[in-house]
Amino acid sequence: MGSGNVRKVLLVISVTTLASFITGLNARLGLVGFPIIAHDLNAGVDGMLWIIQGYMLGSTIVQLIVGGLADIYGRVRLFNLGFIVFTVGALAAGLSTDWFVLALARVLQGVGGAFLMSLSITILTDNVPQGLLGTWLGINQIAWRVGAMLGLTISGVIIDVLGWRWLYLIQAPVTVLALFWSLTTLKETYKPLRPKYLDITGFTLFTTSLTLLLTYLTLIFRGVPPKVSVLMLTSYVILLTSFIVWECRSECSALDLTIFKNWQFAGGIISQILYSLGFGASLTMLVILLEVGKGMSATLTGLGVLPFEASFLVFGILGGRLSDKYGYAPITTTGLIMSTTALYILSKISANIETLPLLITTVLLGIGTGLFTAPNTSSIMSAVSPDKRGVASALRTLSFNIGFLISLNIAFLILINYIPFQEASQIILLGEAVEAVGMDEKLITAISNAFIIQAVFMALAIPFSISRLKYRGK
Known about the structure:
Layout: H1 3-29, H2 34-40, H3 45-61, H4 63-73, H5 76-94, H6 99-127, H7 133-161, H8 166-169, H9 171-185, H10 200-219, H11 226-249, H12 263-279, H13 282-293, H14 298-326, H15 328-346, H16 355-381, H17 389-418, H18 421-429, H19 439-466
Helix pairs in contact: 1-6, 1-7, 1-9, 2-3, 3-6, 3-10, 3-17, 4-6, 4-17, 5-6, 5-9, 6-17, 7-14, 7-16, 10-11, 12-16, 12-17, 12-19, 13-14, 13-19, 14-15, 14-16, 15-16, 15-19, 17-19
């Protein structure tokens, strides 16, 4: 690249990495504090789950609009809108006095986060030479991990000194500064090729079906009458089927599902969703293990998760560079094997497990997930033509978010299967029942079984990664 092109790429990277930093900071600031937040707002296990998954739900449902609008109207304007929505959501979350209001604020923040995360990848793909895309995607995710590491480091201090509300309020000024930098730096380079339309029907069908599924999974905690259960599940299947049929037949669909005919793309998406099913609940279960099972403070719990983030950061960069040199399939496959091994080891935990072996295993998990993420993203984005990259990025994010949400719900359902709802609420929110005879063993058993299910999902992604070895990803 010439000096002018290098400068252009560096300016783009400076904005997209700042967006990644903010979303990473957001993702980890509240991770170690959710038992404290849920207790302060008098939320049960189901309320706490909605606080955790609210952000992911908002991020997931809006992907249909993000991808389509990015390919229609361009990337930069929507990217800047993401900063504004994210800031409003952060302020609303910090000022919430009820867990339901906080969950709604997190949904709003997730909408803004979806614009930032999805379009940052799209903008990078538009501006970076394909042969260097894996490397730059790896570098871009460093900012996410740095934000995540900072969030884990300072979250406990913020909670102890200022209170949990500042976990969200502190994000607002940072996001405003990022918006200013984006407005003065980014220039639109993409020229829309598609006709202007908005798939309201597809958006409504998908949003309703996903929300209905998550509501059903949450209601299971308190018990769902058989007739209601059948009605909700039947409605979900009908809505989801209608969405798929609509997207395949409509000329005004939000998602061009014909790109799944390309196995380089389809295999990457399948690998992504299976990886997400395996990874999704892992850090949440780890936090419960450290903070509730082992009685660590929020500050120490954050530091306990830090080795995972550090190893992910280092090997995320390495994974991107190796994929540019050797192709993505060998690197993603290696990452999946290592992640599966780590989750299997975590499934063998016991009530008296030492902290050091536990942290070493989280490092192995971080290495594996780091090696998988950037190369698989590169393989997905490089498989499609420029006019479909917005949709491709949206589908990639959708696959991750849906897998993450389902993984989280499965893990909590396993928890409730071993510990009744009321007792589980006391354990997670107050930490009282863990002292009861046999209760700590039940908690450990539940977490152990959650990890083994996650390991199975992670292992299922391996064949789909291997099947794409013939593609170099160059």
